[in-house]
Design brief:
The protein is mainly β. The protein has one helix at about 65-80; strands at about 1-5, 10-15, 35, 55, 60, 60-65, 105-120, 125-140, 145-160, 175-180, 185-190, 200-205, 225-235, 235-250, 255-270, 275-285, 300-310, 310-320, 330-340.
Length: about 350
């Protein structure tokens, strides 16, 4: 089997195969040094290169395991000189294409959103997300495992309204911060793109309640999502969309929920051999006139660039809110690296 990488999709070719393309509290912080093993045996171009020392974060006397794993994987990725294939960042809509089996794709980014709303705590402000992490693992020809999360969210509070949850703020009452929720997903390719046929997949996800409602940013409830993914290449344009159901637990009244429609439509088009244009409309729609706080309709439009340089794919994008409780505007910046990690 050989792998062909181009600007906007990955195609695996074989005679009989198809074408398809941190919960935790606050505490003292210490920074023990971590050394990285020798690069002996790594691909040519990485000999003698040693990634920088990994800083650890010790919270409540314990080194957070998720920080160790995620940051170590990312540092190992950037020490390898391997090709990068295209994926979604800076978009949120999922492409049905699966990364090559045995490959590991790592994403790291920063988001800034103005007028972010948290109705369950009554907070509105500018949200800065530092360390927006994505880990994608190709487990087979039709299966990909995904892990997404945020190392830390910081909210600079512009206004506060009465709400059922009274958040714990800083001494001045002007800001709050917390870990982001972790999202585990499995992307399954059901029908590959072939000829005039669309590719079709399914992506079940579970969102864990890592962010605390006591900080005003979390829901303290587990959310479930199931979305179908659809995609097709029209010339150089890669068009894909999502449609599914989200089951959002009520953060105020236990035992109740709000079922919402999940949707997304996106496209990626190569402007040059190194630059892609990416755009989307993505969100959720609640059919209730008065949905539980924190489960309201939200939607946004994004447009940005993917730039292939120095062995990485860099991305930058802008966003604008389309629904009442969506951020009014914002920017996202990130970097992506894919490499072969193991044999199946």
């Amino acid at each position: 089997m050989k792998v062909h990488h181009d600007l906007y999709h990955v195609t695996r070719i074989n005679e009989n195969e198809f074408d398809s393309p941190f919960e935790g509290g606050e505490g003292d912080v210490s920074v023990p040094d971590w050394t990285v093993p020798s690069t002996k045996g790594q691909p040519p171009g990485s000999q003698g290169c040693r990634p920088p020392l990994l800083k650890g974060i010790l919270i409540n006397g314990r080194f957070r395991l998720e920080y160790q794993c995620i940051l170590l994987l990312f540092l190992l990725a950037i020490s390898l000189d391997l090709n990068l294939s295209a994926q979604q960042r800076p978009l949120q809509t999922q492409d049905p294409a699966i990364i090559t089996p045995g490959n590991l794709l790592l994403e790291f980014g920063f988001d800034f959103q103005q007028d972010a709303h948290f109705p369950q705590s009554g907070l509105t402000g500018d949200l800065t997300s530092i360390g927006v992490i994505g880990v994608n693992i190709g487990l087979g020809k039709i299966v990909e495992f995904q892990l997404q999360g945020t190392v830390q969210d910081f909210l600079s509070i512009n206004s506060k309204e009465p709400a059922p949850i009274e958040p714990e703020l800083n001494a001045n009452g002007t800001s709050t911060h917390d870990f982001g929720d972790l999202v585990f997903s499995t992307k399954i390719l059901i029908i590959p793109e072939k000829g005039h046929l669309f590719s079709l997949g399914f992506r079940p996800s579970v969102q864990l309640p890592n962010a605390s409602s006591a900080k005003g940013l979390g829901m303290n409830s587990t959310q479930f999502y199931g979305t179908f993914t659809l995609g097709r290449h029209v010339g150089k344009l890669n068009v894909f969309g999502n449609l599914g159901l989200g089951i959002l637990s009520n953060p105020i009244n236990a035992g109740s929920q709000n079922d919402v429609l999940i949707y997304g439509l996106a496209g990626i088009y190569p402007l040059t051999s190194k630059v892609n244009l990416a755009s989307e409309v993505f969100g959720r729609w609640s059919t209730r006139d008065s949905p539980p706080l924190g489960t309201e309709s939200r939607s946004q439009v994004r447009i940005g660039l993917q730039i292939h340089a120095l062995g990485f794919r860099w991305d930058i994008g802008g966003l604008a809110g389309l629904a009442k409780n969506s951020p009014t505007s914002g920017v996202t910046i990130g970097i992506t690296k894919e490499f072969h990690a193991f044999k199946l």
